[in-house]
Amino acid sequence: MRLTWLLVVPFFLLANPSRGLLVVGCVISVAGLVLRAAAAGSIHKNQALALGGPYAYLRHPLYLGSFLVGLGLFLAAGRWFLPPVFMGLFFWVYGRTVRTEARTLELLFGEAYRHYRSQVSAFLPRLRPYRPPGTSGPPRGTDTVSFAGFRFRLFLRNKEWRAILGTAGCFGLLWAKAVFLV
Fold this sequence. Notes:
The longest helix is centred in the middle third of the chain and has 38 residues, at about 80-120. The chain contains seven helices and two strands, in the order αααβααβαα. The protein has a two-stranded parallel ribbon with strand order 1-2. Helix content is about 60%, strand content about 0%. It has a domain at about 15-45 and about 60-105 and about 150-180. By secondary structure, it is an all-alpha fold. The mean pLDDT is about 90.
């Protein structure tokens, strides 16, 4: 994701934010950050198949959260052509990432992941949380499956606070441009 930083300078040079678009974009991005935080606090990357928290509703809450954060920022930038550019780049980068991740998870978790993948959409949330076959009541995890919800220590270990700081910094710069460079 270091490629993203190469886009920061042209993004800010092209941006023409307004206060109204900043508010709309900020609301969308905050929703994405909340989803990312919930997901980052619920996952033991490559150690256990996450089936709790937002993972009970969709397979890629971190990526959907990233999409919302980016969409909010690019809408706030105030140029009609920036959101489609963002979406094209996002789907190109994350399409490849999702395929690679699926292969890794299938190798690590086998049938448990295949069943989960067949029942839970990548980006459209389920109405009811996913439960593997044969479970009733609140499920309990195993060494390879985790139903745990949000854990602050996982949020910190997965360094999700960086996404929050980066997004806040971007909105701060957009706000400054809207207020002082108009």
